[in-house]
């Protein structure tokens, strides 16, 4: 509380005048003792030395209250009032006793003295109680101060002690957390406006904060940007704590909690969700894998990203084409088939290795990756995130990596499901096309010729029979087509020659010969491999022979040939041979035009001799189910050649 100079002079002057009055009374008493009563001067001085000292101290106290302008107004008023009230109380008691003694006609100084002593005792008791309470309060304040000081010094939050001067928050003290967060020591920050230290140039809302703080409002801000001594912009949560005490120079505290990591995590999480929405729109597992690697490289604080795919029981690093980021262009060697990736894949549990040098067999020095997180992505493989520093992936990076892994698995499952649905839809469309058109046509032909046969045209029965064979072939191909997309049985070692001969026995072969130059075994599903050969043989005979193939008969084997027919010469010869990477099936028929070789495996493709248009499509599906590739080429004699890559 402020006090005007006039009131200060009035308060201090009152005490000084009262002290002078008491001093003058004492000096008058000394004069009478020496001059009237003839008492020795030294005894008079000894008698009145203490009262004179007390009276002069009252005069000095009043002078100090007037001259010391830094004393608070509340202090000046309280001291003056209590001093005068104490004097008035003693005077009143003494006067009360003295007047009664006058009335009684007998003055008893010892009684007056005892009353004064009693009042002094009561005053002493009051002062004692007050002093004890003051000491207890002081001890509590000291303990609270020690706690606050310990909190001020040990908290990780950045705290600045502030005093408002001309509307600006001036720093009086900072804690170690402030020095750690903002990079300013106490000597660098003390006496400077806080805004000048940490408020970025483009921030304009700090004045509104000052108005609220100066009004004594306790408030907070969940998110605001502040600048460190190095110029880095970080994100903080602010708590403004005002002090309403007029005894301290401190007006309040600004408490800043660094939430930069949380803010970055939330931002990365939002970006990750946006990337996930894009992932689920991608149509293939391979494209999802490449997009996931790009998303992880762009969004996560990691030095290395790759995906290890499961392939026939092996874990192989994905090498995406056109990779533009260094973080996954050169996969470290220790990821191929490592126990870390295998363990995470088989257990379905993410595995974080803070220091790869502790893992036996990891090429830590050569790969440059010091720590890594391996996240399983279901049956598709694992996602690997790496850092070049030991324990370089914090909890945020690990959490985001696990979220990405779950989202990638869901996106891959969706892509795989959509691929299966698309394949099923294609087969359904093919079924519908064949049933509605290809089966209906020979059925109509058979019905027409059946009417002619009833009218006596026996030759029409042969045409009915051919129509029935046509429908039978279509039905068999439809049954084979129904198996497309199904996984193959467990592959086993089978002899190519043995399977090919069984397939030849089930294929109509008028004047056709089979030559087998393929010995040895391959890993395959025997039934599906036989079906593959049957479709290739039927395709060669149906589309590779001349228009008039001759009559069919059975059983003629010569020097590696399996041939049927009465004549010595076969209209077409089908050959099977081994290649360095698989096998090939070739015929010496009319061949496939070069412009049609890329489409012969499509559903519905048929050559000049007709056919169901499904045989080679089934061949391609069986090859794909085995993980093989197949392509059509021109044979050495101009016929069709189908090359299978099995390795």
Automatic annotation (TrEMBL):
Alphabetical list of PROSITE patterns matching this protein: HIS_KIN, PAS
Domain (PAS) ranges: 144-217
Region entry Disordered, spans: 313-336
Catalytic activity from the UniProt record: ATP + protein L-histidine = ADP + protein N-phospho-L-histidine
SUPFAM superfamilies named in the record: ATPase domain of HSP90 chaperone/DNA topoisomerase II/histidine kinase, GAF domain-like, Homodimeric domain of signal transducing histidine kinase, PYP-like sensor domain (PAS domain)
Entry GO MF terms: phosphorelay sensor kinase activity
One Pfam assignment: GAF_2
Protein name as catalogued: histidine kinase
Keyword Disulfide bond: no
Domain Histidine kinase: 434-647
NCBIfam families found in the cross-reference section: sensory_box (TIGR00229)
EC number(s) stated in the UniProt entry for this protein: 2.7.13.3
Transmembrane segments: 9-28, 48-67, 79-98, 110-130
InterPro entries: GAF, GAF-like_dom_sf, HATPase_C_sf, HATPase_dom, His_kinase_dom, HisK_dim/P_dom, HisK_dim/P_sf, PAS
Keyword Membrane set for record: yes
